[in-house]
Amino acid sequence: MTIEIRPITQGEAVEYMRLTPWVSGFPQEEPEPVAWYTGRAAYPPLVQPTAEQLEQYCAGLLTDWYRPQAAFVDGKLAGGSAIVSVELTLPGGQQVPMGGVSWTAVLPTYRRRGLLRQMMGALLDDCRERGEFLAGLSASEGAIYGRYGFGPATFQHRWEVRRTDAAFRTPFTDPGRLELVDGATAAAVWPTLHEQIRAIRVGEISPSAGRWAGLAAGGLPADGSGPAHHLIHRDATGAPDGAAIFRLPWAPDPADAGVLALASLEALNPDAYRALWGLLLDFDLTKRVVAARRPVDEPLRWMLTNPRALKLARTRDNLWLNILDVQRALEARTYAATDALVLEVDGVSWRLDAAPEGAACTAAPGVPADVSLTVQELGSLYLGGVRASEFRDAGRIREHTSGAVSRLDALLRPDRAPHNAMAF
Ligand SMILES: CC(=O)SCCNC(=O)CCNC(=O)[C@H](O)C(C)(C)COP(=O)(O)OP(=O)(O)OC[C@H]1O[C@@H](n2cnc3c(N)ncnc32)[C@H](O)[C@@H]1OP(=O)(O)O
């Protein structure tokens, strides 16, 4: 068996696309929000793309944004993956390039022969050659990607709230206004709103190419979830400062009727956030709101008279991070305190001089480490979404200097949990 790993040519694009989850089908452990209530798996392909659609899609496939690698076994295309070029927002606000591993699949008849391992080597080499010191992915299964150095760094909640349980603690007078708009208007608002959000939200990711195109097009999804409804909030000057997308899915079972399924909600300030939820939680003819891919520290819970009304249905890891260059990564973010620690990462010692203004990280060979860890734990810690003390107590981080793990936590402590609503 001869295995060759290389980028595809334009002439191989259709064959490559056929093995990606988009075309080959992808049993999904976390279906789209509306699918929980309509009972169908709302992940593409709901219907197989036609040959013409595939050709159209492949025409624009090979770009600087989408960097595929494929595995050929004895000349036959048997596996594929890609790096998408995105940016990640770090503590301190810097938006740095990140290689996003995506669209990975190996044909079922070629699995467990090391094709992913070899493709991953090529993908991560590509990131290093381009100077990307971070790679990220969202994992189809939790046991696969740790071996390559990826650790879960952001998390999401799925929750629901019954309309009758949702009362706000305090009355609210909106200084701005809400507007239901069509898809074209929403498509004009979301890109700017998302740019404003990702400038201030640690963990947020730049949008994929064409991310907003579908909003203007509208159309009915084949899963019975009904049309998207677009809600915009404008501040007192009329500038958009929040938006939500929701659906009112049809349900065959009366027990599932009356659901408002939230697809997205972003707000730049507490007024917009309160106004959007105020309308969505008290929407006539609905019984409950279900929301997926929400931040793990959703402020809404604390705005309700009964914080238990917001029922957590699921926590899910979202972005997995791989630190490809420890020195550059540790210098690229800012820290919540001023301190110096020696971290041994995969056997290499680094002295980190960290402060709210920034940091210096220098090689410290032979210097006794305060804390030892691997790049996998560092990936999880990097944005502040997991505490070092959790890893210490799980036996995954070793503390050589008493109190060093608490000091590391004090450095990495985030204002808000890192969160990315954008996927790639
Ligand atoms: C980032 C994303 O794109 S997520 C989407 C991932 N895609 C899918 O899940 C689609 C369905 N699955 C597949 O196509 C394949 O099984 C893949 C891509 C997950 C793995 O491809 P393979 O070529 O079979 O993996 P490969 O043989 O290189 O295995 C590499 C290692 O991962 C392990 N591994 C592979 N798949 C799994 C799995 N599902 N669960 C646990 N371990 C796994 C292997 O045992 C091997 O371990 P080792 O290095 O200790 O020997």
From TrEMBL:
Name the source's superkingdom: Bacteria
Extract the SUPFAM superfamilies matched here.
Acyl-CoA N-acyltransferases (Nat), SCP-like
Q: Name one GO biological process term.
A: aminoglycoside antibiotic catabolic process
List the Pfam families. Acetyltransf_17, Acetyltransf_9, SCP2_2
The UniProt record gives the binding positions of acetyl-CoA as R112, R113, G114, L115, L116, R117, S140, E141
Query: In its keyword annotation, does this UniProt entry include Mitochondrion?
Result: no
**Locate the N-acetyltransferase domain: which residues?**
3-175
**Which keywords label this protein?**
Acyltransferase, Transferase
CDD domains tied to this protein: NAT_SF
Q: Which residues catalyse the reaction?
A: Y145, F424
**Which InterPro entries would you find in this protein's record?**
Acetyltransf_17, Acetyltransferase_Eis, Acyl_CoA_acyltransferase, Eis_dom, GNAT_dom, NAcTrfase_Eis, SCP2_sterol-bd_dom_sf
Q: Its Gene Ontology molecular function terms?
A: aminoglycoside N-acetyltransferase activity
The entry describes its oligomerization and partners as: Homohexamer; trimer of dimers.
Give the similarity note.
Answer: Belongs to the acetyltransferase Eis family.
- Return the protein name: GNAT family N-acetyltransferase
